[in-house]
Write a structure and sequence with these properties.
Blueprint lengths: L1 H9 L1 H28 L5 H7 L2 H15 L13 H17 L2 H18 L1
Helix pairs in contact: 5-6
Length: 119
């Protein structure tokens, strides 16, 4: 196995092709198996109701971390990024009324961009 890896490493094009193939498998497998598993089963209604909250909770966790945690020592900073806090408030209002993740994200990006130009 080590011989194969050293031979692939010497040929850059082949190395990149092998990396792309492995990355494709790594991206495909976690998507294929749940679809394959759940396509032949009836999903309970309580599970569907619960899954409605997963995207917004993940999105919130990512956004809150970036707004209120500083990368210099990972400390809580309540007012460290006022432009991002204001943009997050705009996103919350838009998300509440539209229930669209894509419209909310685009509005947040535009809000941060405009507020960075002003502040």
């Amino acid at each position: 196995m080590e011989f194969l890896i050293s031979r692939i490493g010497s040929n850059q094009i082949l190395y990149h092709i092998v990396v792309i193939i492995f990355a494709a498998f790594a991206a495909f497998i976690p998507r294929y198996f749940p679809i394959h598993f759940f396509s032949s089963r009836k999903i309970p209604e309580w599970f569907n109701e619960w899954m409605k909250y997963v995207p917004i909770s993940l999105f919130t966790a990512l956004v809150i971390k970036n707004i209120f945690i500083t990368t210099k020592g990972y400390h809580f900073v309540p007012y460290g990024h006022p432009d991002q806090i204001f943009a997050a408030l705009i996103v919350m209002v838009i998300a509440y009324f539209t229930r669209s993740m894509s419209i909310s994200v685009i509005a947040g990006l535009i809000g941060v961009w405009l507020l960075n130009m002003v502040l």
